[in-house]
Amino acid sequence: MAASELPVVGHWIGGKPDSGTAGRFGDVFDPATGAVQRQVALANEADVDRAVLAARAAFPAWGGASLAKRHAVMFAFRELLFARADELAAIVTSEHGKTLDDARGEVQRGLEVVEFACGIAHLMKGEASEQISTRVDSASYRQPLGVVAGITPFNFPAMVPMWMFPIALACGNSFILKPSDRDPSASLLLAELLAEAGLPEGVFSVVQGDKDAVNALLVHPEIDAISFVGSTPIARHIYETGTAHGKRVQALGGAKNHALVLPDANIEVAADAIASAAFGSAGQRCMAISAAVSVGEETAAALSAAIAERARALKVGPGSADGTEMGPVITSQARDRVASYVEAAAGEGAEVVVDGRELSVDGEGFFIGPSVIDSVTTEMSVYRDEVFGPLLVMLKADSFDAGLDLINANPYGNGAAIFTADGGAAREFRSRVQAGMVGVNVPIPVPMAYFSFGGWKDSLFGDLHVHGREGVLFYTRGKVVTERWPQRAQGVDYGFPTQS
Fold it and tell me: CATH code at 326?
């Protein structure tokens, strides 16, 4: 099919679809076949400006709406999203490639944030003190920022936007979403459902695009805050540029999540959990376990063999096919990048126990199998870099302390997990590990919506994590009011005036 005959994914501005004015388009692939299935409009500065102006015009009424009104919209959105969850999951699978079960799980985790936003009033409450001085009272309030934007990655085209906009909207802000141009269609369905739920025009917009759209958002004077999830180099750029232009910024970066496996761990349980965390969603998630650290030679040998067995048995194929356990990666470039790390690891002296390059799948899809790389050291590129694919590296440590020190020396600090039957060791790990999210016998410790998601070190730029209470704090600002009122008149005094 010629490019001119392909359907085009456009923007959503002013409460309706918008084709944009830039005249530039990008290809949207089906990762399972390698074919271009549609195109996406790429916004220019003028498109971004129209979305921002619509958001700014809509903000006073929406920011001034009652909490009950905002809750009503969120509740209605929740019901519509629940009813069409399978449709949204199918869109995610078609453009991202992940399995339908994985896509359904993504939508469910997004729904949990929507449900959290339905009760936002509790976290919008301020505090008050009476009589702080003679006839003086003081109270604090949380108020919306104004116009905020979210720049989201390809790996969770439904869930990550829902980490942001339900809370931002429930707090009274207008929101502009800039999704990934690799899988843009989910964002438009979300926009349609918000409109159907009764969200006023202009309060939520979608601007498709590439770096031109991102840069326009970062410098626009009418945007008050930016939320971002993506790689560490881009997160650093987003944070530095946004803050330099006077914006509040939360920028979540990359990860190299470790699992520490102690000798007393149940190896079969640990192998099941780590294989799932490493290869689920083809390893394309910032909470994937990408490094397993075994304490002791016996533990290392047993764990490597058990994970390799699971990797070889993994059924790889189109995400929409029954029985598929792992789909393709997002692009041919992503596939080739993962393959290059396998090759580099072998060249640097690591042992390629399972080689994902050997996978054979019919068709031209962007498939690569799971890889397990043993005898890895911290100097190797396959360990230093965030590969972002179905590749697990295996490292060894002589002791609990040596394993913990290895993890803490890594520049990333998104997530970490420990597998053990020793409560004391687990408690010490929980306390000392330098990561923002920690699992004890849990491989992917993504918090529920009422907690907050975010890492430490090079995995986060900014002070506040997404969703939960910190999400509310990010999308609002505090105001303290101090009041004194004249004393109420006590009536007419007909007595003889005196100095007293």
Answer: 3.40.309.10
